[in-house]
Specification:
Chain lengths: 207, 207
DNA sequence: TAGATTGTTAATCGATTAACAATC
DNA sequence: TAGATTGTTAATCGATTAACAATC
């Protein structure tokens, strides 16, 4: 309904534009051109313009893009003005690191609770609840949770994801080493460290 | 020198094949066909065959692929038979989670040391040394370290990467929220959680 | 006005898919 | 042998790049 389907490649570049625009803003720049962005990020100027024009004409011929304006547009496109409530499922190493990682607040994600099957093993900052997985579906509905961060073992990840889908979760950020795909109803991003390490190994070997 | 340049898309799929083949092996299967892989991973059978044939003819007409044989080939291609020595630079939340994450051993990566500027804040399992960043270049050379895992703040990541390159590191696994690119000399994989979270936000918004 | 830079259309390039001969 | 499935060639599709008219 919104616009013609935007390719995943384009979406993957948007955060890079946003990050660079933030840097420009911090360093006091008022304007930026597609060729500035190009040389900073190693993306062709043509592609930068092509990508941005998917969402509207944000620039001005002969001038470039107004940094503040484009930043605001990107924030809108990426949905960074909204605050999201999140839970973590799986209180192991990664789950605990994420639960105490303060970077989330900057990105407008508030972690409300950590779920596990063995509560005694889990610790978390005191404003984050520690609860049993059995309570999860009820909690997600009651507290209107948007995002679930899955950091369970891979064996449990798929069924946890299904349970969350049924509980009405909107998005899943998956750290378990398995691809999760729940169709169009739930937004999913997989961070597969294991696959990344394999790719690193491949690249290193090829040198 | 090796073969015609393999595209990054192909490389990104190799670990998925490997992971699925492992599952086949664990469940006792002897053979697997491109259409088996296709339905398990949501990749077309044609692409599976195309991808694998970049590295050789591993299958047999009318039969498919021998699981053990293909697994061995993939292990070779990905370089998973070799053990790599690694260090972690940056002893914050992510660095510490990684230092005690046992999954590495399975993937043939041994973490030898964690480097930081403020040693008193860092803890690690006792077989992992905790050292000051100033000692890093010397250590990398002396101990023949292959992989550096960067988990510093983004402000330091780039200069740390340069220092490591000069010390002769072979690969960098970067968790700092900034793209690192060191040319052809050093293999790099970026895990940018911040960008991933932005993409998740975008997808969620679009629903 | 002259110079710069956008947004967009057209051209190119590369990746994915389809088809099929080879053959186990 | 008949059926199945590969490896590879050709066709299609989509993404990137180039070019340029519009215009600030």
């Amino acid at each position: 309904m919104e616009q013609k389907q935007i390719s995943l490649n384009v979406i993957a570049r948007l955060p890079k534009y946003y990050r660079y625009l933030q840097e420009c803003h911090e360093s006091g720049a008022n304007k930026v051109s597609s060729s500035n962005i190009s040389s900073a990020l190693g993306i062709t100027a043509s592609q930068v313009r092509q990508d941005l024009s998917n969402f509207g004409g944000f620039g001005q011929q002969g001038y470039g893009y107004d940094v503040q304006f484009l930043l605001e547009k990107l924030r809108n496109i990426l949905g960074l003005n909204e605050t999201h409530k999140a839970i973590i499922v799986g209180g192991g190493r990664i789950g605990q690191a994420l639960s105490s990682y303060s970077g989330f607040i900057k990105e407008n994600v508030i972690i409300k609770a950590v779920f596990d099957v063995e509560l005694s093993h889990v610790s978390a900052p005191k404003d984050i609840e520690i609860l049993h997985v059995a309570e999860m579906p009820e909690y997600v509905k009651r507290e209107n949770i948007d995002i679930a961060i899955i950091s369970t073992q891979k064996e449990f990840a798929l069924s946890v994801a299904e349970t969350l889908k049924n509980a009405g979760i909107k998005a899943i950020w998956n750290f378990a080493p398995i691809d999760i795909n729940l169709g169009d109803d739930v937004a999913v991003e997989n961070i597969n460290m294991s696959e990344s390490l394999f790719r690193l190994s491949y690249k290193m070997k090829k040198k």
